[in-house]
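Dear all,

This email documents one entry for the complex benchmark we are building for the journal club exercise. For each entry we list the sequence lines for every component of the assembly. Then comes the predicted three-dimensional structure of the complex as a C-alpha cell string, followed by one or two observations. Please use this as the template for your own entries, and keep the labels exactly as they appear.
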Amino acid sequence: MEFTELLLNAIVAGILLGGFFAALSIGLSICFGLLDTVNIAHPTIIVGAAFCTFLLNDLLGIDPILAGLILTPVFFILGLAIYSMYYQFFEKQSAEALRGLAFFFGLLFIAEVLMIMAFGVDHRLVSAPYIGNSFTTALAGMEFSIPYRLLAAFVVASAMTVGLQVYLSKSFFGRATSAVHQDGMALSLMGVDPVMVKRIAFALGLATCGLAGALMIIVIPIEPAVGRFFIGNVFAIVVLGGLGSISGTLVAAFILGIAESVVSTFFGPSWAPAVSFAILLGVLAFKPTGLFGSGDTR
Amino acid sequence: MRFKFEIGCVLVLLACFIFTQADINRFYYFAGFAILQYVMISTAWNILGGYGGYINFGTAGFLGVGSYAAIALIEFYGAGIIEQIVAAGIIAGFLGLAIGFFTLRLKGVYFAIATLALAIVLETIVNNWDYVGGAAGVSILPPRKPELLGILIVDRKGDGIFQNNKEYLFFLMAVMAVMSVWIARTIEFGKLGRGLNAIKDNEEAAECMGVPTLKLKLVATVISGALMGMAGAIFPSYVTYVDPPTAFNLELAVNSLAMPMIGGTFTWIGPVVGSILLGTVQQVAIVTISSEINLLIIGVLLIFFVTVAPQGIVGWFMKKNK
C-alpha cells in the first residue's frame, strides 16, 4: 500500500478508535473533571462491565450492545454505593485527597483479583453479527477497510457521549453539576444539596461504564488486567481535554485515537501505550489546564 | 543513650549474618529476602508518600528500571552486584527527577496518575527491547566465585564467607534494608522531613513560610526512586530469571502502598512494622492458601486501613499509650 493510503486508513481507523476512547473516558471526565473524585479504578470497572457483557452474551445470547444498555442502570446503582462510601470516609471528614486515591487504587486491585479468580487470565470474546467482518470501499483510487466492530462501537459511543454532553449542558441537573464544580457552597445556599448532586453525577459517570464495557469487549478481546493499559489513555484524554470540559474530552479522545492509530500503523502496535503517556506528560508539563480547561491545577 | 538506633541496626545485621550461617531450610531465606525487600521498598515509598503526602503508584516502574539496569549491565560487561546496585540507584534516581520535574509542580493527583502510567510505559519499552530479553524474559547466571575487594565471598567448599550465593544476596539485602531505614529516619528528623511534613499539611502555607517546596519534593522523589531502583537491582541475581510481567508487577505497587498505610505513614517505624507483618502474612498465605487469596487480603486490608484507621497500627498504639 502506498504511504498516503496507509496514512488515510490509519486516520479513519483513528477517528473510529477516538469514538471508542470517548466512551471510555467520558465517565471519568465527569468524576475527575467535574467532581474532583480521582477514580483511577474507572478502566477496571469498565472491564468488569465487559465481563458482565460476556456472561450475558455467552449464557443468554443477548446482543452485546443490548447487554450494555441492560448493565447501565446496574452500574448507576454501583456508582451510588461507591460514592456514598467515598463521601462517608473521605469527603465528609475533609481527609487528604490522596487518601481517596489510595482507596480507589485498592478498589482497582480488588476488582482485578476478583475477576482473575472468577474468569482466569484467558482472553474472552463475544459473538455478534457485526464482529469479524470489514466494510471495504474504494475512494479516489484508494482502498479503505473499516472493521464493522469499530464502526458499531463508534456509532454507539457517539450516541452516548453526545447525548450525555447535551444533557449536561442543557438540563437543570447538568448545570447543577457544573455549579458543584465551580462552587459547592454557593450551590447549597441556593437550596440545592451539593452532596446529592455529586452522588447522582458520580453514579452517572459510572453508569457510562456499563455501555463502555460492552463496547470494549466488542472492540478488543479482554482479560482482567486489560484495564490497566487504559489508565494512561483515559487520563491523558481527560487531562488533554481540560478538567471540567466534557466537549474538550470528546475532542481529546479523537486526537488520541488518531495519534495512537498512526503510531500503531507505522511503528507497530506494541508502541501504542507510549503515545498516551507522552501526551499526558507533555500536557502536564506545558499546558496543565488542557485544551479547554479552566480549573486550577495547583 | 545517643546511638541507640545505630546500635540496633548493627544488632539486626549481626542477627541476619548469623541467620545466613545457620543450616536451615532454604525457604526461610527466600521468605526473609522477600520481607527485607519489602522493608526497603515501603520505606523508600514512605519518604515521599508518608512524609510528603505525594502518592507514588509507579513503584513497579522504579523497581523494574532497577532490575533492567542491572540486567543490561550484566549483558554489557558482566558487572558485579555492587556495581549493578549503584548504577540502578543512579538511573532510578534520574527517572524520579524526570517525572518529578514534569509533574510535581501540579496537584498531587497528577503526580500519582503519571507514576501509574509510567510503570506501563516502561514495561512497553522493555517488551520492545531485545537486548535485555524483550517480552520473552532473560536468564541470569550468577558468577561462581564472586570477590569483593580481594576477599572471596561465596564458595561452596567453605573457603568464602558464605556457602551459597543466595545467602550472600540475603545479607546484602539486609544491609540495604537497614541502610534505607536509617536514611528514612535521618530524613524524618532533619530539615527535609520537616519541610515535607509542612508540604503535606498545607503546601501553600509552607511555600509562604519560605519552604522551597518544589526542591524538597524533587529531592524526596530522587531519594525514594533511587532506593527503589537499588531494591530492584538485586532482584534479577536472586531469582535468576526475569521477564517484564514479573519485573513490573502491579502487586509491588500495591504492597509498597499498603505496607506503610497499614503500619503508619508518619514515622519510619510504620513501614517497617507494616512490611514485616504483611510480608509474613503473605509468605504464609502464598504457601498455605493461594496467591490470589493473598492478593485479595492485601487489597481488603489496604481499603480497611485507608478508610477506618488512617493512622495505621503504629498510630493506633501511640494513641492507646497516651
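Observations: Chain B has a mean pLDDT of 84. The radius of gyration of chain B is 19 Å.
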